[in-house]
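Run log // design_07
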């Protein structure tokens, strides 16, 4: 049998192999919102799903379709829907698959806006239990009769806790629960949630996937492992044809079409081009992160470093087993007497910025910004200290990063 093509090769040649216009190597940016039909009966057939085709830009766009295909291949899934942002992807899945009275078990270690979004769903009658998902026993203990899904992130922001991904996968399979994994921090290059039985993979394409901080986007990928025929909230209208497609059909119609957080074709193009260098960028960023984490960990002016690549990290072994590399996110807390704002202001190479997964190294004082709204109690429960800085390490020359911290800390000590 012919060996399967590698991750990078398959992605680089994805657009060109899909019979694009004029033999272009990049799928073109198609701005058209509407599509014309010679035979109006064809238009009707497209609307009714009897024929493949495009009807309106909020639902489908050829440039976006090409990106979706890339994501599906990278995640080893069966189907992908792209959205305007990562938040839109998460929100649209919850909106389309849950109803009042349902219960969700979520990791307590969550991206700040995801946490805020979940509390909005609580106002609409969906119950959410937040548990320490680094141990699957806590997830098991929270499951009830009305539990529909379990939501976790691979590496949590900012303290880098790693969910008990394999055991939660087994638990969800055993209980017939939908298993949603946010793979933003690891990306399919470091980890494929499909390998631990995830049902749906969430990705903020804005971050490492696009990788240059120049386009927003999100995606949901169906791994093809969940039996949608057993999901109670599929509407009768969508219980038609192959049951393997029901979930994504409902998300497409109720989530994307009705909610309308559609990814634009220009952004899709940026994200697709960015993704072509994902493995190169990610490997370099992870190498830089490990070297920087080791440097900071041994520096007397730094009180603590959370990075899964350090042997002292509580889930270091898990990271080694599951991920190709331990990612490029870390959080650091300077010793008392060195203020996080002063440290950030001294740094020349590191940009004070809220994004992550950029080619540039970005740093942010988390308690005062992205986790400010959560309040001190929830922050404390997540291990977030007031003086903590989250770093998203980029692909700079590592010596420059180490020299930058070295000089800044020397000034402040
Ligand atoms: C950024 C991020 C999101 C949201 O993605 P956007 O594209 O910014 O909407 C969701 N989950 C995680 C883990 C993220 O880092």
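design_07 sequence
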């Amino acid at each position: 049998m012919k060996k399967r093509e590698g991750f990078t090769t398959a992605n680089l040649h994805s657009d060109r192999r899909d019979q694009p216009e004029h033999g272009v190597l990049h799928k073109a940016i198609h701005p058209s919102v509407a599509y014309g039909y010679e035979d109006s009966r064809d238009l009707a057939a497209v609307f009714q799903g009897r024929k493949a085709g495009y009807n309106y830009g909020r639902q489908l766009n050829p440039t976006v379709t090409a990106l979706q295909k890339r994501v599906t291949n990278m995640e080893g899934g069966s189907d992908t829907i792209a959205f305007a942002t990562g938040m839109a992807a998460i929100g649209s899945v919850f909106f389309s698959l849950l109803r009042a009275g349902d219960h969700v078990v979520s990791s307590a270690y969550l991206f700040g806006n995801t946490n805020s979004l979940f509390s909005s769903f609580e106002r609409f009658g969906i119950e959410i239990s937040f548990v320490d998902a680094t141990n699957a026993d806590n997830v098991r203990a929270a499951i009830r009769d009305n539990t529909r899904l379990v939501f976790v992130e691979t590496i949590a922001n900012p303290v880098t806790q790693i969910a008990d991904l394999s055991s939660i996968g087994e638990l969800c399979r055993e209980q017939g629960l939908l298993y949603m994994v946010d793979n933003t921090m690891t990306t399919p290059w470091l980890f494929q949630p499909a390998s631990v039985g995830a049902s749906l993979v969430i990705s903020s394409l804005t971050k490492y996937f696009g990788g240059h901080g120049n386009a927003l986007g999100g995606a949901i990928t169906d791994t093809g492992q969940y039996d949608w025929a057993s999901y109670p909230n599929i509407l009768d209208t969508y219980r038609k044809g192959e049951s393997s497609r029901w979930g994504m059909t409902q998300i497409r119609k109720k989530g994307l079409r009705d909610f309308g957080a559609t990814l634009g074709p220009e952004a899709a193009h940026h994200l697709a081009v960015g993704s072509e260098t994902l493995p190169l960028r990610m490997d370099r960023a992870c190498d830089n992160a490990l070297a920087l984490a080791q440097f900071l960990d041994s520096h007397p002016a730094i009180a603590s470093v959370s990075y899964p690549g350090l042997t002292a990290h509580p889930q270091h072994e898990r990271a080694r087993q599951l991920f190709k590399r331990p990612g490029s996110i870390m959080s650091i807390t300077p010793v008392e007497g060195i203020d996080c704002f002063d440290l950030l202001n001294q740094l020349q190479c590191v940009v004070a910025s809220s994004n992550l997964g950029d080619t540039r190294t970005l740093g942010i004082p988390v308690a005062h910004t992205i986790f400010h709204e959560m309040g001190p109690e929830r922050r404390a429960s997540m291990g977030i200290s007031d003086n903590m800085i989250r770093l998203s390490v980029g692909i700079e020359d590592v010596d420059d990063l180490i020299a930058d911290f070295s000089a800044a800390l020397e000034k402040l000590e």
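Residues 85-87, 111, 114, 153, 157, 182, 184-185, 204, 206-207, 216, 218 surround pyridoxal-5'-phosphate (CB under 6 Å).
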